[in-house]
Design goal:
The structure holds three protein chains of three kinds. By secondary structure, chain B is of the alpha/beta class. Helix content of chain B is 20%, strand content 34%. Chain C folds into two domains: 46 residues, N-terminal domain of TfIIb; 62 residues, CPE0013-like fold. Chain C has a five-stranded mixed β-sheet. Chain C has a three-stranded antiparallel β-sheet with strand order 1-2-3, covered by helices on one side. The chains are: A alpha+beta, B alpha/beta, C alpha+beta.
Chain lengths: 484, 426, 125
């Protein structure tokens, strides 16, 4: 099969590029090395839809951030993704820093961010009663919001697939050849032919670029660590609380998540290994210490998990969204670090425009459907809606994950939806089962059993996240037949 | 939404809830409903296949499932109704319960009295904030116990256990007997959190080392766990980095404490004791909300199920009395029970005086003490004492105080429980 | 040779510390036990230590694939490994009722392996 476009990478960037391409009469394929979409940077980040005051004016980051932010409410609605436009504060902890806050506001205005204002005094306290006394002023950006990054990525990718895009999971690109005006892209298992390539390979965008003979940039992973607190503390702050970068460091954020937890982080550490998402003792204490300049944090006993993600920043400092110098039919969407999650829909539009400029013919599909096939998740339903569903499908009345109140029905749908879950973490990202305060202590064995039954594979082969991440190592009584 | 009525609803069909239901039934309550989230009654006992249960309650040694079935059979014999695979999702301030299951969908029950018996959950890696990677192979001991004992799966072959609570010790033996290599049990404290007998019969019997004052400081392995770094800790329980050593293993089991599951309790606005993480209760096991009783591990974490059952029976008896009296409450002030010197908490935390029989008091001490006496003071004066050879934080203490001490001529408004050296005079 | 040993009683959760003084196979003195069973435990622990063993046995056609089991009386400690081998070899057909004998007089110890749980037959859908 000769594809018009192969998109390498199914993170949030690749997913939105694929979705944008799925509007047109094209044969498109997404290649992803992992066993699920959203497995790299898109999985572990601050989950913020930024307003856009931060980026250097006229940079791609600034333009695409503001554009992405404006599109997000409609996209979230189309994709059935929970998005809460709760606004953000940048806190300032000393009088001397107020000019910096004003500077930031000026920058935001020139980037086209709407509604910015500086808030002080009683109003500040009324809006965020739990911030520290040292927090004397804040830049308020009402258009900022919170979203679940893997839900956004998954639903965008599913919408693309539902509109005809092929998704090949577990295909790590090993080489790219360009022969008779056709790209031949190889993975360990297969070969894919394409007229155009989009490089949305995240942390590995430089490697993929090099496969096509382009070494014009490199990706420098920067690790950020986070801690997630119990839902009991989800209302400690009402907005995304940033800190003004100061002599003490870049600052960390404190924010509620769309699902009601409290998220704190990240730090920033340049590292070499692109797979090193380990958390560190120093990193975790650093973020807790820095965050407590903004609010007094709950006890560490109420942390339910900590994690780290890698930002896929390029050495150029800005997003790299352009045709490769060597071949205009090879388009980069690289160096997508913050505000990449916000910018993703705008990156998608931009990449499609570049493809068109490079000669891709775009013919609108008549049957393009911007809305995702699956409706509202059961956990977002009203009582009456839920009762109706349970009458038709009793498994939606059987709770498997008690902490997040996730039913067997939701777990079954997560396995059988457009991009189905094949492992424990994939179920968790789709349903939140195992995401709560017991961290899967009660429900993991049930989820393994359901996965085993539905995928018709022995429980011993079910993994946490693919590869060798097997959860079980055989049976206690080996080789004994349990069937009749 | 479907609305149901019941005299007594019991949230949780484990040992505490079943004991409460049976006792309420014995006391004449007919309209009882147990709500259980799993697919059978019995709770966590089904996966506790080891023996050692029932010595106090039945005078014989039973395994967990055997202990559970004694109660399940009695629930059946007494025709007490129960729903399984039914989860309570909301408990309102006016005792309104919202629950969900596959037959009824979402439904509401307005009972006259409620017994909370939701049990507890295990503390996770997150709460310990252990840094490192996040591979497969890290389980709470209870999850591993479920895999091994109920489903017949081995979670791993080469195991390190963090935490020497009873579940950790029991799982060390279980994993060993099922063929795993159990490399060690690490314990942060200078003493084990489990029962002495379990150190002997679960570790010493199989030469499994117990490393006191040690903790896990890092986790290694990308996909499956490959090892952990352990380190000794100083007197402030901070790891001494020079003592770090890496232990290869494919499995880390965490047995680092249990947390009463009181999310429903808190949502209802019931007062929760910060030391026990359970609701504050009086000697009737009644919480701060009238007609709402609590028992078992939801109130405080027990070491012995026998005491859970006893507490459940007390809650059931009092809930029955509450229903029978139609809210007719004894007038009079409450007596506060204060945890004094070297006592971390007491349960109950208060007493409602009304012609008391004896009062059973549970408490935990703050450290290991030898040759001490437990002293109960009323309004500052010693009214009761009992000698103990040894008390440890890992073993819950219990005292039966004669009700007569409350009938002293002066009005008692506080009881204080403390630990004293035997030599220490008045 | 006179030998003094401190044992922790495992009969009940109290875990008494028992001091035993022995001269080869003769127990000279025992102290520290809290009850009669504790004294018996101390003697047995020195002369012929025994344990009750619990594990699981494979179930055929059952709702669960294993059923919990125990030895209905304690068996000599040195036989534990061998006992586990026997337990791992055998299986039982559902339905299983609590108290069902899975293995009789295992390893000639006089103890039976009995089921401690109930496993109904798997109803095929």
């Amino acid at each position: 099969m000769l594809y018009d476009v192969v998109v390498i990478g199914a993170g949030v960037t690749g997913a939105f590029i694929a979705r944008e391409l799925s509007r047109y009469e094209l044969k498109v394929c997404m290649l992803e090395k992992e066993t699920d979409v959203s497995m790299g940077t898109s999985k572990a980040n601050s989950a913020i839809v930024h307003a856009g005051f931060d980026a250097v004016p006229n940079s791609l980051k600034a333009q695409l951030n503001v554009r992405g932010n404006k599109r997000m409410p409609l996209i979230a609605q189309e994709l059935g993704v929970d998005f809460k436009q709760i606004g953000s504060f940048v806190l300032c902890h000393s009088k001397e820093d107020i000019p910096k806050l004003e500077e930031l506001m000026k920058r935001g205005i020139s980037n086209g961010v709407e509604g910015l204002e500086i808030i002080t005094g009683d109003r500040l306290k009324a809006m965020e009663p739990n911030i520290t006394a040292e927090s004397i002023a804040a830049l308020y950006a009402p258009t900022a919001g919170i979203i679940c990054p893997y839900e956004l990525t998954l639903h965008a990718a599913e919408n693309a697939v539902e509109n005809g895009v092929d998704l090949k999971l577990g295909h790590e690109v090993t080489s790219i050849r360009f022969d008779s005006n056709i790209f031949i892209i190889s993975s360990a298992q297969d070969e894919f032919k394409a007229k155009f390539i989009v490089n949305a390979a995240g942390l590995y965008a430089d490697t993929v670029s090099m496969m096509a003979g382009d070494n014009s940039f490199s990706i420098k992973p920067r690790r950020g660590e986070y801690v997630l607190f119990d839902k009991a503390h989800g209302n400690l702050v009402n907005r995304v609380i940033f800190q003004l970068p100061s002599a003490k460091g870049k600052g960390v954020l404190v924010t509620p998540t769309v699902d009601g937890n409290l998220l704190v982080g990240p730090n920033a550490e340049e590292i070499q290994d692109k797979q090193d998402t380990a958390t560190t003792c120093s990193g975790l204490s650093e973020i807790l210490r820095t965050a407590s300049l903004s609010v007094s944090l709950p006890s560490t006993g109420d942390i339910i998990t900590s994690f780290a993600g890698l930002r896929a920043g390029a050495d150029t400092g800005d997003f790299i969204i352009r045709a490769s110098e060597g071949n205009k039919r090879f388009i980069h969407a690289a160096g997508i670090e913050s505000p990449g999650l916000t910018a993703a829909p705008a990156i998608g539009e931009r990449v499609v425009k570049l493809l068109e400029e490079s000669g891709l013919r775009l013919v609108q599909k008549t049957n393009y459907n911007p809305s995702i096939k699956y409706g509202k998740a059961a956990r977002h339903m009203t009582g009456d809606e839920l009762n109706k569903l349970i009458r038709q499908h009793p498994e939606f009345g059987r709770i498997v994950c008690r902490c997040e109140k996730i039913t067997e029905g939701e777990i079954l749908s997560s396995i059988h939806r457009t991009i189905g879950a094949t492992n424990l973490d994939a179920v968790k990202r789709r349903t939140r089962a195992g995401m709560g305060r017991c961290q899967g202590g009660f429900c993991s064995s049930r989820v393994v059993e359901i996965l085993s039954r539905e995928l018709k594979v022995p429980a011993e082969e079910i993994t946490k996240f693919g590869g060798n991440s097997r959860l079980l190592m055989g049976r206690t009584k080996h080789n004994l037949e349990t069937n009749c | 939404m479907n609305v149901k009525k019941a005299d007594l609803v019991i949230i949780g069909g484990g040992p505490a809830g079943m004991a409460a239901a049976i006792e309420a039934s014995k006391n004449g309550i007919r309209d009882i409903l147990i709500l259980e989230r799993e697919n059978n009654l019995g709770g966590i006992l089904h996966q506790c296949i080891h023996n050692g249960f029932g010595l106090h309650y039945f005078g014989e040694e039973l395994t967990g499932p055997e202990y559970a079935w004694r109660f399940i059979d009695e629930v059946h014999a007494r025709n007490i109704s129960y729903y399984v695979e039914t989860t309570v999702i909301n408990f309102g301030p006016d005792k309104t319960i919202t629950a969900i299951n596959s037959q009824e969908g979402l439904f509401i029950i307005k009972p006259r009295a409620v017994v909370l018996a939701m049990g507890c959950r295990e503390r996770t890696r997150g709460a310990l904030n252990i840094p490192g990677t996040r591979p497969a192979g890290i389980y709470t001991a209870g999850l591993a116990q479920k895999f091994v004992n109920m489903e017949g799966f081995m979670p791993g072959k080469s195991v390190v256990i963090l935490g020497s609570g009873d579940i950790g010790l029991i799982m060390a033996r279980r994993m060993f007997l099922e063929g795993a290599q159990v490399k060690m049990v690490c314990e942060l404290m200078p003493y084990s959190g489990g029962l002495n007998r379990n150190i002997v019969q679960c570790l010493e019997d199989f030469d499994i080392p117990l490393r006191l004052k040690h903790t896990v400081v890092a986790i290694h392995g990308k996909e499956r766990l490959e090892g952990v770094t352990i380190a000794q800790v100083d007197e402030h329980r901070k790891p001494i980095m020079e003592t770090c050593e890496t232990v290869t293993c494919d499995t880390l089991l965490l047995s680092v404490g249990l947390i009463p599951e009181n999310e429903l309790t808190r949502e209802a606005g019931i007062i929760v004791d910060r030391r026990t993480s359970g609701p504050v209760v009086n000697d009737c096991m009644e919480t701060s909300m009238e007609g709402v009783f609590a028992c078992g591990n939801v109130v405080h974490v027990h070491d012995l199920v026998d005491y859970v059952s006893r507490e459940g029976a007390r809650a059931g008896e009092c809930a029955a009395a509450y229903i029978t009296a139609e809210g007719d409450k004894a007038e009079g002030g409450e007596i506060q029970i204060t945890a004094g010197k070297c006592v971390r908490y007491t349960v109950p935390q208060k007493i409602v005086p009304k012609g008391q029989k004896n009062i059973r008091l549970f408490f935990r001490v703050t450290d290991i003490f030898r040759k001490v006496k437990i002293v109960v003071k009323a309004n500052g004066e010693t009214v009761f004492e009992r000698k103990r050879n040894k008390v440890t934080p890992g073993e819950m203490e219990s005292l039966e105080i004669p009700g007569s001490i409350l009938n002293s001529p002066t009005n008692v408004n506080e009881l204080l429980v403390e630990v004293q050296n035997i030599e220490e005079g008045q | 040779m006179l030998e003094k040993k401190t044992l922790i009683c495992i009969i009940c959760p109290v875990g008494c510390q028992i001091e035993v003084c022995r001269d080869d196979d003769n127990i000279r003195s025992i102290s520290g036990y809290g009850c009669k069973r504790g004294k018996e435990y101390a003697i047995s622990e020195l002369l012929n230590p025994v344990r009750t063993i619990t594990s699981t046995v494979t179930v055929r056609c059952g709702e669960h694939q294993v059923v919990p089991v125990k030895t209905d009386k304690p068996i000599p400690k040195h036989l534990i490994t061998e006992l586990m081998r026997e337990i791992n070899k055998c299986s039982i057909q559902a339905p299983v009722r609590m108290g069902d004998i899975v293995l009789q007089n295992v390893l000639n110890t006089g103890a039976n392996i009995i089921a401690t749980g109930n496993i109904p037959v798997l109803q095929q859908e």
